[in-house]
Amino acid sequence: MKLTATITLIAVFISFITCGQTSNRRTDQSYQIDSGLTDKIEKKVKSFNDVSMGSIDFRIYQNDSLVGETYSMAKSMESVTMSELNGDTAYITGFLGMFAGLGFQITLFKDTCIIRHLAKSDVEIYKLNKSDSPGFGVFVPCRTYNLKLISKPAFKKGEIIEGLIELSSEDYYEVSNGEDSKYRIELTGYFKTQPLASLNDQLNKYEKKK
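User: That's the sequence. What structure does it adopt?
Assistant: Structure tokens below.
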């Protein structure tokens, strides 16, 4: 069961990378180091059956009207945390759902990062721009974001990265019954990765456990 779940998550992670519409506009910014967040983050994350679980709170706006939010709930919603180390770059995805849902993607470099909101469906409904053709998913640039990590990453195999991301996305679109609706999201995510490894290393590790 643990093996199947982990391989499924790796497959989902790959699908996120390959199936989403992505803007060519890059908005690199620096991130902050705040070791004082340790206790707060530890209360929001856990590991279950070798899967890293984080937490997400969000507000969703449809055509500029609030249509859903979790901040008023007593507990944040659990999310899956997936990660990959590729050379000197770390990718971290936090996602509510499995093959459909919402979340965030963090691309970490030495001193900078790129943050995007992620929305994915099992049907072709999402568009970055109103004139685009709908697809299964979108990686949406952010109007603003603030990324805080407990410690500065060394980008080494086996390293664990944990932190807090706050973002406000740009507008994107969802198609329903032939009509376009404009969406945007405000999101707070808490995450702690499994020990960093490449996707090939992760697959090889679990192949050996069969």
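The radius of gyration is 17 Å.
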